[in-house]
Each structure stands twice: as structure tokens, then as C-alpha cells.
Write a structure and sequence with these properties.
By secondary structure, the protein is of the alpha/beta class. About 35% of the residues lie in helices and about 15% in strands. Among the domains are: about 1-40, no CATH class; about 70-335, Type I PLP-dependent aspartate aminotransferase-like (Major domain) (Aspartate Aminotransferase, domain 2), CATH 3.40.640.10. The protein contains 12 helices and 16 strands. The longest helix has about 40 residues, at about 320-360. Bound molecules: pyridoxal-5'-phosphate (PLP).
């Protein structure tokens, strides 16, 4: 099948009809950047209701890790759906939940006894981690980043710090959360220090935050995305997380790692935190782990997961169909797809850095594996330029490649991990054309 293949004006006539019905009946809170009405998909090819075929470089927002409708994942789902769809792991037992917990214990960093809690989404995984950290430590406060995204339930939202649009109208949030700086992030006032790797941002937590307004002994956990997702695909400097973990350990503060977006092999390791050899106390997983089936996981050492019977549960968590999809996904990731993420990530990085050299509006290209952000700037490479970033995004959509934005003015490259060399080249070509078209505005 030729991909991309645009056969109508966008949106096409059938899409327009569905968009109108959507507007009448679906919550207006969703932030869709352009009108793609999907009908079916395979690999990276998403066909809309008008027959237009798009190359999906969003993976359904970093979810379809094995590509859309991977035949082996579909087979597992179909077989399981014909045998046992639901029994509720909160009240009964079944093999798939146990197999899932055993597998997660094996693939997450740290060679110690672990246990897993299951929900249905990233927010539920984070919410569970938040409650568990408080419960286990009996400490009332949390730390997180002011450029982070952790989800939209009240607990996860309270940890989030990347954009006030998520909080507007919902105050008061859960009290006791203090936000600190992520290194290399646009807002961080210590960025100049990162070059010397002195990690002023960590010293600041001890010297300012703990000394002046947050007693360290009241903090249960520090919640961290190892690579910022929604906040702009920002990678911290090497050595940062090792140093942070050491500091947290010295105060008995748990390190809770949100791998919802960066996990499931996307960065070229099963979990992004493995790039720095740090073992989280609590790890949250969702999105790509089940190739599109809903599954949120909060995994912790058995010592930390010490809550009482009835303390936390979710009716649909670890649904047997989702578990079978996840077990197959993990096996596919381990048998080639993580290596492919590393290889194709290098190829994309090379192509994007060449584009950056040639166009002033591209200010930064950063990332690991298939988690790459391209930031658009104006006025000589420093000021974020959301207007241009949005224009490029829309031009790419019209050219048949679906990307998604993040941060203030960044486009994310997060294709399914099955992406081929040819598909990378097509995406780079369409992207460069859009960058070029937006580079000469008078
Ligand atoms: C790092 C991170 N944590 C949590 C979430 C929330 O996940 P969900 O939308 O499945 O609730 C997201 C979603 O984008 C995320 O990127």
C-alpha cells in the first residue's frame, strides 16, 4: 500500500460529517490538533474514513508500540476474548494477572522482590504510586517537576506542572506537592551550570527547598519522568539521575519513576531510566506496554507495596485481554523492536540534525531512540515559536504524515517501534518540506 496517499481535500467529505457529529456529542475538552478521522490501521498506515492514508509518526500518542494491529497481538487478543474477557482481579484470581506481574518484575530495573498494582491508564498508574508512597512512608508531601505531565485525575494532576491549562478551573488540587526544575528544560534557571555538570538544580532542592519551605523528612517521594514527555521531550544530562537518587536516598525519599511515555522500549531500552543505571523504588507504566489495549501498572518493591487489603483497587485493572496483549508486546519488544528503536532513532536524529543545520527556525533536536523532539524558534534560535511549530505540524498532516506537538513549540517524533528505514525517510522528506515552506515568511 502506498503511504502516505491523500485522495481528497483534508478533511474529506465523510470526515467532515463525523467531525460535526463529534462536535455535537463528544466532550470539548480533548485537544485534537487536526482533523484525522481514523477508520482502520496497520503498521504505520492509518486510513481515514475518506480513504486517505497517513503515515503515523505519533503511534496514537506513544501507544501503538508494535505498530497498529500487529498480527501477533491481534491473535492473542482474539484468542483471549474467546476464552475469558473479564473476571476482575480485584475480587478473583486468574493466570494472566499473575503472569503479567511476574513479567513486569523481571523486566523492570532492580533485582529484588517486586509487586504490581494494575489499573487502566497512565493516570491510574501514577495515582496508585502517589497513594502508595504516602501510605508506605506516612509522609504527607511530594516533589515533582514544574515541566512534568503525569495525567488528569486529581492526584496525577497535582503532580503535573507543564501547563496551567490542565489545572484551570479545578482548584484546589491535592495539597503538599512542590515543583522543582528539570535540567535542560526551557524554564530551568540553572541551565548554564549543566555544562559543568555541577547539578545546581539538585543543590537548589537541598539548599533552598528543603532548608526554607519543605522539610525533607515530610517528603514521601520525588516523582520524575526520566525524559520529559508532554513537557517537550527533554533529556537530562548524564549523571543527573544518579546524583538525584543518591540525594533522595540520604533523606529516605522514594524515587518514583513515571515511564508511562518513555517506557515500553521507546528510547532504545525497555525503560528510559536504564540509560543511567538507576533503580526506581516505584515505577509507573502504561501507554505502549499493551500495544493499544488499556493497562496501567504501578510496580514497587514488595517491601514498599505494603498496603492493607482493600486499600486500593480498580475493577478493570489487568483485564485478561489487555494482559495477553501486553505479554505479547513485551516479547516482541525484547525480540527485535527495542533494537529497531535504537537503530531508527539514530537515522532520524542524523536526518533531523541535517535539517537543523539548514533551517534557522529549527532550534533544537533532542531525544533518545524513537522519542525525539524538534523545537521551533524565532529571533536567532532562542525564543520558542509555537506559531511556526503549529504551521509545520499542519503542513505535515496535509502532506500525509501525522505528528503530535509537545512542550511550547516542539514536534515529537514517536512512531511505532516497527518503523522501517523507508518510512523514516518519507517522514523526514515531508517534514523538511514543511520546515522549508515555513522558513520564508515575509
Ligand atoms: C509521562 C506521562 N504520565 C502519565 C500520563 C497519563 O496517561 P493517561 O493519559 O493514560 O492517563 C501521560 C500521558 O500522556 C504521560 O505522558
Amino acid at each position: 500500500m502506498a503511504v502516505p496517499k491523500i485522495v481528497t481535500e483534508l478533511p474529506g467529505p465523510i470526515s467532515k460529517d463525523w467531525l460535526a457529529r463529534d462536535e455535537r456529542s463528544v466532550s470539548p475538552s480533548y485537544s485534537r490538533p487536526y482533523p484525522l478521522v481514523a477508520e482502520r490501521a496497520e503498521g504505520l498506515a492509518v486510513t481515514d474514513v475518506d480513504g486517505n492514508v497517513f503515515l503515523d509518526f505519533s503511534a496514537g500518542i506513544a501507544v501503538c508500540s508494535t505498530g497498529h494491529c500487529h498480527p501477533e497481538v491481534v491473535k492473542e487478543i482474539q484468542e483471549q476474548a474467546a476464552r475469558l474477557i473479564h473476571m476482575s482481579g480485584t475480587d478473583f484470581f486468574y493466570r494472566e494477572q499473575v503472569l503479567m506481574a511476574e513479567t513486569i518484575a523481571e523486566i523492570t530495573p532492580g533485582n529484588f522482590h517486586k509487586k504490581s498494582f494494575f489499573g487502566n491508564s497512565g493516570a491510574e498508574a501514577v495515582e496508585a504510586g502517589f497513594k502508595l508512597a504516602r501510605y508506605h512512608s506516612r509522609r504527607p508531601r511530594m516533589l515533582s517537576y514544574n515541566s512534568s505531565f503525569h495525567g488528569r485525575t486529581f492526584g496525577a494532576l497535582s503532580l503535573t506542572g507543564s501547563n496551567s491549562k490542565y489545572m484551570r478551573g479545578f482548584a484546589p488540587l491535592v495539597p503538599g506537592v512542590t515543583h522543582v526544575y528539570f535540567p535542560f528544560c526551557f524554564h530551568c534557571p540553572f541551565n548554564h551550570e549543566c555544562d559543568q555538570c555541577d547539578f545546581e538544580c539538585i543543590n537548589y532542592i537541598e539548599d533552598e527547598v528543603f532548608r526554607k519551605y519543605v522539610p525533607a523528612e515530610e517528603v514521601s517521594a520525588f516523582v520524575a519522568e526520566p525524559i520529559l514527555g508532554e513537557g517537550g521531550y527533554v533529556v537530562p544530562p548524564d549523571g543527573y539521575f544518579q546524583r538525584l537518587k543518591k540525594m533522595l536516598d540520604s533523606y529516605g525519599i522514594l524515587f518514583m519513576c513515571d515511564e508511562v511515555q518513555s517506557g515500553a522500549g521507546r528510547t532504545g531500552k525497555m525503560f528510559a531510566i536504564e540509560h543511567w543505571g538507576v533503580e526506581p523504588d516505584i515505577i509507573c507504566i502504561a501507554k505502549g506496554i499493551a500495544s493499544g489495549m488499556p493497562l496501567g501498572i504501578c510496580c514497587a518493591s514488595a517491601e514498599i507495596m505494603d498496603w492493607h487489603r482493600g486499600a486500593h483497587a480498580s475493577t478493570f485493572g489487568a483485564n485478561p485481554v489487555s494482559c495477553r496483549a501486553a505479554l505479547k508486546t513485551i516479547s516482541l519488544l525484547q525480540n527485535g523492536l527495542i533494537d529497531n528503536a535504537r537503530d531508527k532513532g539514530k537515522l532520524l536524529m542524523k536526518g533531523l540534525n541535517e535539517i537543523k543545520e539548514n533551517y534557522e527556525i529549527v532550534g533544537d533536536v533532542r531525544g533518545k531512540g524513537l522519542m525525539i523532539g524538534v523545537e521551533f524558534v524565532k529571533d536567532g534560535k532562542n525564543t520558542p515559536d509555537p506559531q511556526t511549530s503549529n504551521k509545520v505540524l499542519l503542513d505535515c498532516f496535509n502532506g500525509g504524515v501525522a505528528f503530535l506537538p509537545c512542550g511550547r513549540s516542539t514536534i515529537r517524533f514517536c512512531p511505532p517501534l516497527v518503523v522501517s528505514e523507508e518510512e523514516c525517510e518519507i517522514a523526514l522528506e515531508v517534514f523538511e518540506k514543511a520546515v522549508k515552506a515555513n522558513s520564508f515568511r515575509f
